[in-house]
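U., I forgot to send this yesterday:
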Amino acid sequence: MKNILYLIHVPWGWIKQRPHFIAENLSKYYKINVFYKKAYRSNNLVRNKISNDLDNIEIKGIFGLPFEKYNLIQKISSIIIRFQLKKIIDKFDLVWITHPDLFETIKNILPNDIRIIYDCMDDSLEFPYLKSNSALTEKILRNEEELIKKSDIVFASSDYLRCKLIDRYKITKNIYVINNAVSLDKIHSGYDLKIPFYIENKFKKTKIKLSYTGTISRWIDMDILLESLKRFKDITYMFFGPKEINLPKHNRLLYFGPIEHKYIFNIMKQSDALIIPFKLNELVLSVNPVKLYEYIFSGKPSIVIEYGETLKFKNYVYLYKNKDDYFNLIEKLVNNDLPPKRNLEESRNFALNNTWEKRIKGMVNIIEDIF
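Result:
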């Protein structure tokens, strides 16, 4: 059984995303040792527990320093992290890396015979905090180029992202597209799990509930949401997830913070519609939304911004291109004229064909063919 050092750039307690799901499912095939940078602020974190039936995975936090956006602090933090990993890195057959900065931290301690896998889940150069920091942008650019060249396998989460990597670095090696997916492990026990009282109480007092689950950042189109609140007096937006921006103050725009993944499906079940109200930019265009697979499984009507990656879901969700499209869909919802695009059986079948278990089987096949 291969032994994998699995390095992720988000805390294990962040809302469950691609790295978390992949690590859990890979442990059904390999021994996985997950190392993540410990967070110094806990207000955006939740408890992501590992299932009791997963024996081949260990989760450990590694110590760095806070305020790593400062160059000197980042260098010192890298030294601290490198020291912690240097003592154990020889034990592994593979190192799995989810962000270019992690490669810079460990590249000088990598054994010559260790294999490298880079799982590119986002376009790292397009995050808002980089736009005003050209030095940091250049550093990530250099690190990612070197990481891709050194990697034995590169996975990308979307077709758009794969094309961007090929074009940006002029590489000829094959990059494998492994889209995101849905986790249905023990789903039936969690689907009817009672949600926390403070959430349930708000749901009961709200007429038409539109829910969003995921990270809340600058890519959320707050303008379109606020204008819709003016137009439609019976709708309320419910946000669940870590918050990287301040939300506008409005009595029908409610924020509940991060929640454990086990509550997600019951929250969707009690919602009237689910939304992905993104502003389109290069970061978003590369995203194959994890939440969209979950939305479809719920069987609820979903209102989603249209772009290349969401067009793949057009038979299951309502897509909009502009404000007028969005408001037309909201009006139909208010008038009880926005049924789910597909019946529940069809939606569940879609989810069953797009599980993390199936995605990881594809990854394992590639790994076994190459190694």
